[in-house]
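Let us work through a complete example step by step.
Step 1: write down the sequence.
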Amino acid sequence: MRYIKLLLLIPFIGMLGPLPLVNRIEPYMLGMPFLLFWISLWMVLSSVILYILYKLDEDNAEEEGRE
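Step 2: predict the structure and record it as tokens.
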């Protein structure tokens, strides 16, 4: 659990890493150009990842009283 904060790099890498590869208009996903879909997808995934990391973080467990 010591390196749990390194998982914060996942959204950063996921959104910006393959950006040159997904920088295209077609195909359309859910009615959006692919680049817009990719960025929207990672915004949602980033929120989910941050929530999971918040629950796994030991510092937050002490504040909430669940040790």
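Step 3: interpret the result. The mean pLDDT is 83.
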